[in-house]
Amino acid sequence: MKKTITIILLSLSILSVEAQIEKLTGPKVGITMVQSGALASILRKDVGMFTDEVRQEWTGSTGKYGAVMSQYGWQWETRFSDGGNVTGIVEWITLVGGMEKGMFLPSVSSMVGLRNSKGIEFTIGPELSLGGIAMLIGAGYNFKFGELNVPVSITYVPSQNRTYYHDEELDPMTDEIILPEYSVTHPTGGRISVMVGFNLSK
Length: 202
Hints:
The protein is mainly beta and 202 residues long. The chain contains 2 helices and 13 strands. The protein has helices spanning 2-13, 38-43; strands at 26-34, 67-82, 86-97, 105-116, 120-129, 132-145, 148-157, 161-166, 169-170, 177-179, 182-187, 191-197, 199-200.
């Protein structure tokens, strides 16, 4: 891990140009490709979002196929350690996914990283969503068209195993156990997002 961080820092430090480093606050749109797992099964509507179905043994196509969803949101930015050709950045990103499927899947992430004066950036940070907390790793590049900035970024969230617990079920008449308590572990499914932003240079 230390070697990877060192390589990234050295790569950014040798990329120098006299252009000012842009602040890329603005709207973001994109798509997220989801590997097979709990989220993909919800997006495919193989299981309900807030039901016990996802906790039980999966059958049929559930858990076997990936899915794709749209993303729409906004990015805010602050800076630290401005080094001229390389600037430290903190990005706050709020997104809503799955609206094309009639779903409302919000997420909030905070990513810290570096951007150089050529518009290349590397970031990492936590994301909070309905599925819990995950870690994002991102890279991006800012395309300039006159005064218009079009930052394009790719982020990756690795899959995690989540354990779901189900309480025992009792017969209301006899108090006999119908279904004993149990736990089931399902992968969330890794996610790759491609996002495009827009803002004007000030």
